[in-house]
Design a protein that fits this description.
This protein has one domain. The longest helix has 29 residues. The protein starts with 25 loop residues before the first helix and ends with a helix. Helix 1 packs antiparallel against helix 3, helix 1 runs antiparallel to helix 5 and helix 4 runs antiparallel to helix 5. The protein is 71% helix and 0% strand. By secondary structure, the protein is mostly helical.
Length: 164
Amino acid sequence: MTQYPYGPSSAPGGPWGARPVPPRTPDLGLLLKLTVASFAIGVLGSVIGYLTSSEQVAAASGGMFLGTGFVLASAVVGVAVNAGLYALVFFPLREQRQWAWILGIVFASMAVLSTVASLVLSFAVPVVPAGTQPLQLLPAALKLAVDVAWLVVAVRPGVRAALR
């Protein structure tokens, strides 16, 4: 007697071992678009952060050029790490993997918490040069809105129905 009394087609993988893929829902498509938007806004925030950093402003005004290379290198490494983390969520989520959905919820929750903390600290202890704070707050506020929207869309029933 086999484990599957109704034949191999009743096995979890079907007769050929492949699991049936649920249809992709519009909610899952929106979630993928929000993932790309969150990454793009993060890159935009990094570029603005680099251009408005105190070392870059000092270098542009004729000061020492010493810290500019470090700021650029840290921005490039930060963008590369973020690209890897977003790819870790985006591509498996596109393949409708449930673990990527869970990982995305964890990452989006961490992003919301860190962005809120960053915004609160930027008002409590302004460390950016005068006049550049609004330039840095706009991408942070946009990223916060997109990450909250990601979390809201992620818990919709249409997203869960599309995951296997």
